[in-house]
């Protein structure tokens, strides 16, 4: 981002030549797709809100639902179930929290999506307004290609760790949590699992992460064709 800012300042004096036709070419079209899919990855993960619901019966309380609401960034260990009854259960119900802190994986994924979103905007400004400078200076295509390689790798890592964290979130909010709740083991107390909010949208966020990885990896080829490395290779292969 700092490089792009410096580049934009450096080429600002070169003159703006707006050409939206570049968006129809692979270089610009793929960058638009990368921008859109970064937004989708950010939105599907960062906007999630859900809750786990249990049914509790104990002394003085019959079939009372308790809920634990959770959301991004999924610090589940800070999420507490509502008490069945402040004065019920004969004092056997203590504060019950969900288990696990998955914030680092979720924030890594969302932060990458946000940075990619900003980078795509800056790159599109260069492509559309300063393409003549971009093509004349080989450093820009080469740097763009290196950033694309790095970004594809980061999408791979972030999607992998987020998918693993998502599996943990499902375990920590599903029916398997009941055996770990001490209050549900008290004499005369029974707990049963009712439901948990569907996490289909989070599954979709993993898919968008993979799509972003393939987009950025595939874009390396189009960027490579704009560098001197590709031109030099062509000259070598054509030289008898």
From TrEMBL:
Pfam families: MARVEL. Residues 22-228 form the MARVEL domain. The keyword Ligase does not apply. It is found in: Membrane. It is a multi-pass membrane protein. The chain crosses the membrane at residues 108-130, 142-163, 201-224. One of its GO terms (cellular component) is synaptic vesicle membrane. Its main location: membrane. InterPro entries: Marvel (IPR008253), Synaptophysin/porin (IPR001285). It comes from the Eukaryota. Keywords: Glycoprotein, Membrane, Transmembrane, Transmembrane helix. Belongs to the synaptophysin/synaptobrevin family. This is SYPL1 protein. It comes from Sapayoa aenigma. The gene is Sypl1.
């Amino acid at each position: 981002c700092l490089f792009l800012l410096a580049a934009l300042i450096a080429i600002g004096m070169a003159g703006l030549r707006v050409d939206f036709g570049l968006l129809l070419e692979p270089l610009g079209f793929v960058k638009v797709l990368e921008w859109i899919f970064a937004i989708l990855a950010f939105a599907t993960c960062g906007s999630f809100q859900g809750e786990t619901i249990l049914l509790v019966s104990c002394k003085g309380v019959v079939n009372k639902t308790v809920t634990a609401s959770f959301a991004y960034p999924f610090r589940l260990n800070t999420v507490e179930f509502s008490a069945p009854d402040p004065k019920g259960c004969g004092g056997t119900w203590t504060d019950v929290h969900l288990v696990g802190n998955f914030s680092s994986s979720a924030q890594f994924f969302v932060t990458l999506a946000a940075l990619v979103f900003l980078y795509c905007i800056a790159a599109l400004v260069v492509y559309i307004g300063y393409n003549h400078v971009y093509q004349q200076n080989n450093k820009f295509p080469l740097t763009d290609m290196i950033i694309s390689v790095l970004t594809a790798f980061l999408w791979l890592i972030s999607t992998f760790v987020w998918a693993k964290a998502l599996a943990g979130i499902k375990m920590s909010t599903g029916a398997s949590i009941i055996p770990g709740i001490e209050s549900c083991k008290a004499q005369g107390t029974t707990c049963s699992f009712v439901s948990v909010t569907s996490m289909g949208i989070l599954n979709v966020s993993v898919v968008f992460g993979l799509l972003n990885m393939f987009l950025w990896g595939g874009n390396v080829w189009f960027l490579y064709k704009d560098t001197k490395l590709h031109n030099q290779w062509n000259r070598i292969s054509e030289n008898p």
